[in-house]
């Protein structure tokens, strides 16, 4: 009986991405030698209590990829506190 394979090797479609449009509103800063993306709430909306906390683990493209920046901006604008983990 042949071995069963649950998944084949990744194909070309696994590496394609659709780049979203928009202008990221955050900024890139360094902590040590690691670049991080910081998104801050719109002026006048910051408060001590956030609506929720999101631990953002970026996909294979990393937190500095435009799609991930725009996603982080989206949640920040809606009052969540984001904790961004950059995986190297």
From TrEMBL:
Outline the segment boundaries, as ranges, of region: Disordered.
1-22
GO molecular function (one): hydrolase activity
State the superkingdom: Eukaryota
What this protein is called in its record is: Alpha beta-hydrolase
Ranked from the top, the taxonomy reads: Eukaryota, Fungi, Dikarya, Basidiomycota, Agaricomycotina
